[in-house]
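Customer escalation, tier 2.

The customer says the design service returned an amino acid string that "doesn't look like it belongs to this structure." They asked us to rerun it and document both sides in this ticket. The original C-alpha cells are below, unchanged.
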C-alpha cells in the first residue's frame, strides 16, 4: 500500500511524510519544490506528471495548494491552475488507478465572509452546515476543488473525504494589530480556543480519513482543536472573551500574566469539530486545556512534530511588513 502525498515540501506535507516514515508506511511525496521529503518534483497542474506519480498508488492525500499568503503575489489564473486544475488532474488519475481513498486538505478559510459577524452580533458558531461566502480567489478555488471532489465521489464512486483545516502554520500573524500586540506563541495559544489546530492532530485526522473514506463514501469535516466553549457562550465571547476563559479555566489569567501573555479581548468565531470527532473517531490532543496544563507545569505545549517541521514561510522573498504581503 503506497500513499501519494502532494505538497510534500510544505508544512503539512512534510509532517505527513515524517509521520508515515515513522510508521514504516510506504509513501511517495510530490511537490513543485525539491525537499528531503519529496520523491518526485513536478507540478500537479501537469497531467502527465500526475499520471506518472499515481503509478502504483493505493491512497492519496492531496495537501498541495496555493494558500492565502499567495493571493497578493500570484494571479487568479495561478490559483485556478493549481487549486482547481491540479485537483482535477489528481481526481481523474486517482479514479483511473482505482485508489481506495482520496483525502483532500481544504481550509476553514473557505467559509470566508460567513466567519465575520456584524458589529454587536455574537461570535459565529461555525459547523459544516454554515454556508460559505468566499471572499478571495483562494477561497473560491478551494470551494471549487471541493465541489469537483464531491462530484467524483458521487459520479465515479471515488471515496473522498474533505478536511477543512484551521490554522496550523507557525508563522506570525499577517494582521499587524495582532502581530504587534501579541507574540506569535501567545497569539497561537489563544487561537487553540477557537481557530487553530496542532499539526500533529491534523496528521492524525488525515490518517483516520484515509482509513474511513471507503465506508464514508463522501464526507466534509472541520479539523480544529476542540473548543471548550458552548454555543451559548457566543454573545459573551464577542463582549469579553477573557471572562469566559477565566470562568472555564480558573487561574488561566494568572498563568498568562506570569508569562507576559494576554488573552484576546473578543473572539469573532468558534470552529466546531464535533462531526469529525463523532464520524472519524478523531481525538485531538493539543487543545487549550493542554496549553493551560503545560503552562502550569512549565513544559512545552506544542507537539514534537510541530517543532520538528518548524517555520517554512510561503515565499522565497523576505518581506519587510509581515510574514507575507496582504492583498
Amino acid at each position: 500500500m503506497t500513499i501519494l502525498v502532494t505538497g510534500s515540501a510544505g508544512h503539512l506535507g512534510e509532517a505527513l511524510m515524517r509521520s508515515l516514515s515513522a510508521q514504516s508506511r510506504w509513501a511517495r511525496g510530490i511537490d513543485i519544490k525539491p525537499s528531503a521529503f519529496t520523491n518526485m518534483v513536478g507540478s500537479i497542474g501537469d497531467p502527465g506528471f500526475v499520471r506518472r506519480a499515481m503509478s502504483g498508488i493505493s491512497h492519496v492525500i492531496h495537501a498541495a495548494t496555493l494558500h492565502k499568503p499567495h493571493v497578493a503575489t500570484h494571479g487568479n489564473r495561478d490559483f485556478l491552475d493549481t487549486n482547481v486544475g491540479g485537483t482535477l488532474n489528481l481526481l481523474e488519475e486517482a479514479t483511473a488507478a482505482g485508489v481506495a481513498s482520496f483525502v483532500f486538505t481544504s481550509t476553514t478559510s473557505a467559509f470566508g465572509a460567513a466567519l465575520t459577524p456584524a458589529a454587536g452580533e455574537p461570535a459565529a458558531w461555525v459547523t459544516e452546515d454554515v454556508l460559505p461566502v468566499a471572499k478571495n480567489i483562494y477561497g473560491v478555488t478551494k470551494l471549487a476543488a471541493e465541489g469537483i471532489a464531491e462530484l467524483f465521489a458521487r459520479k465515479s464512486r471515488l471515496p473522498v473525504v474533505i478536511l477543512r483545516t484551521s490554522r496550523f502554520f507557525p508563522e506570525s500573524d499577517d494582521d499587524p494589530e495582532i502581530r504587534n500586540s501579541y507574540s506569535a506563541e501567545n497569539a497561537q495559544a489563544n487561537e487553540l480556543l477557537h481557530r487553530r489546530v496542532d499539526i500533529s492532530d491534523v496528521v492524525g485526522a488525515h490518517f483516520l480519513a484515509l482509513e474511513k473514506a471507503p465506508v464514508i463514501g463522501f464526507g466534509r469535516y472541520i479539523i480544529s482543536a476542540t473548543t471548550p466553549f458552548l454555543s451559548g457562550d457566543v454573545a459573551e465571547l464577542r463582549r469579553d472573551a477573557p471572562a469566559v476563559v477565566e470562568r472555564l479555566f480558573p487561574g488561566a489569567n494568572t498563568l498568562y500574566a506570569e508569562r507576559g501573555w494576554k488573552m484576546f479581548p473578543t473572539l469573532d468565531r468558534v470552529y466546531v469539530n464535533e462531526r469529525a470527532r463523532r464520524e472519524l473517531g478523531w481525538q485531538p490532543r493539543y487543545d487549550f486545556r493542554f496549553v493551560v496544563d503545560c503552562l502550569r507545569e512549565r513544559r512545552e505545549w506544542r507537539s514534537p512534530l510541530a517543532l520538528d517541521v518548524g517555520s517554512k514561510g510561503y515565499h522565497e522573498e523576505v518581506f519587510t511588513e509581515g510574514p507575507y504581503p496582504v492583498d
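Tier 2 assessment: The sequence is consistent with the input. DSSP finds twelve helices and nine strands in the chain. The longest helix spans residues 76-97. Sent an explanation to the customer and offered a walkthrough call.
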